[in-house]
Amino acid sequence: MKCRKCGDKAVFNMRHHKLALCAEHYLEWFPTQVERTICKYRMFTRDDKVLVAVSGGKDSLALWDILLNLGYHAEGLYIGLGIDGGFGYSSLSLEKTEGFMVTRREAVLHKEDIPETYGESIPEVAARKHRGRGKPCAVCGLIKRYVMNRVASEGDFDVLATGHNLDDEVAVLFGNTLHWQTGYLARQAPVLEEKDGLARKAKPLCRLYEREVAAYAFLKGIDYIYEECPHAVGSTTNRYKELLNQLELESPGSKLQFYISFLKAKEQGFFQQVTGQAELHPCENCGQPTTAPGLCTFCRLW
Ligand code: Q46
Ligand code: ZN
Ligand code: ZN
User: Fold this and answer.
1) Are strands 159-161 and 109-113 parallel, antiparallel or unpaired?
2) pTM for this one?
């Protein structure tokens, strides 16, 4: 297969776009797509202060790399969760994040460590609380969202960017559709506006396939953590991903089509009647926004 741009040997083929590219042109094409997504959904501009949530994985490191290269003011945020999983998941993910920093001297990284600050790792809090019984993901999600919001507000960031790719978004969309969770469907979007102290959020990789992000990271020589968090293994999201991969294999472009059609339906007001959100007020203890009366869920957790 030949590169569509220069006719050299192609290294990557995207069946859904009917596009094959050589390494050089792929590394040119990919960031352009990210930039287009940022502009299309008016995620942020070069005047904004962007906080990128980094986990040491390919998606977040690729996103950070691209934002820096495109000239955005992008600082990283790493949250140490204290997850081991038999291979030191958290320490390895920090190592990869710091390894990336060595290659990008100008990059600024904010580090938060949950066990150090709050005295317990994610699996420990989860084991103690009813909410986390069996799987620590519910507790973990809550803690990460809280810390990201706090750092974004303390550092006066305009937006919080995460590395969710198309496969992530489509798996969530599939789950929400399967159960007709209209409230979640109404809130799933490439960009979420700031609300009562909840930071603005953006997902610049939301239209790019996971394998496209992986190809970028690989061709760019970004050293990232290959292993998933041990608690993600066997998750519902991963099962949806497998199903959707089968579908994609048989009809390339299905995932992108599903996602884009969903966004179009939203634009046409399909979920408008359910967009109303609960009122937020500051937590009595920490001042972060919450819907719960008195203390926020995070403060209750500790
Ligand atoms: S880090 Fe946390 Fe994920 Fe691990 S414990 Fe679950 S939520 S799987 S993105
Ligand atoms: Zn080429
Ligand atoms: Zn609180």
Assistant:
1) unpaired
2) 0.95
Please give the number of the atom of ligand 1 that sits closest to the Cα of 122.
5
pLDDT tens string 117-130 = 999 999 999 998 87
Ligand at shortest distance from the CA of 125: 1
The string of pLDDT tens digits covering residues 200-225 is 999 999 999 999 999 999 999 999 99
Q: Residue 235 C-alpha to ligand 1 middle, in angstroms?
A: 10
Q: Residue type for 183, please? A: G
Tell whether ligand 1 has an atom less than 6 A from the beta carbon of residue 225.
no
- Torsion, Cα 174 175 178 180, to 10 degrees, reads -110
Query: Is 57 close to ligand 1, i.e. is its CB under 6 Å away?
Result: no
Query: Are the beta carbons of 60 and 52 closer than 8 angstroms?
Result: yes
- The single residue listed with the structure tokens 């992108």 is 256
Alpha helices by DSSP H, 107-165: 114-118, 122-128, 137-154
pLDDT at position 99 over 70 = yes
**Nearest ligand to the C-alpha atom of residue 288:** 3
